[in-house]
């Protein structure tokens, strides 16, 4: 049984997100899509919102946890108090979920946000929060990379 399962990276794939967002050219529509994604991210139980999982450098509180699956792939989970940040987190989880540590280290966890046309609209503080999230993911992958 996986800790804090979610549909991202399994039922909701990068390809599905690209199809979903390519239909929306206006930022407001993409924003709405992000909020819908946020609603699909199950809230983390309070027991998992531990200080050691909380990332610093984000304007909203953000938690990022993980577990190494028996086959060596990484399962990531997380939550945020902000709706938009939860949506962005869902996109990032889609990009990294179930991948091997080496694969995560060779790819930019934020590249999918660029492909979806989401990063250029973000405030500076949100952008730095995303960097903190990407660094957190890389740090986790580094622990398990051979």
Automatic annotation (TrEMBL):
Superkingdom: Bacteria
E.C. number(s) listed in UniProt: 2.8.1.7
InterPro entries: Cysteine_desulfurase_CsdE, Fe-S_metab-assoc_dom
Keywords in alphabetical order: Transferase
Pfam families for the chain: SufE (PF02657)
All copies of domain Fe-S metabolism associated, residue ranges: 19-139
Enzyme class: transferase
Gene3D superfamilies noted in UniProt: 3.90.1010.10
Keyword Transferase recorded: yes
Catalytic residues, chain numbering: 58 (cysteine persulfide intermediate)
Single GO molecular function: cysteine desulfurase activity
Entry's family note: Belongs to the SufE family.
Protein name: Cysteine desulfurase sulfur acceptor subunit CsdE
Lineage: Bacteria, Pseudomonadati, Pseudomonadota, Gammaproteobacteria, Enterobacterales
This protein's encoding gene: csdE
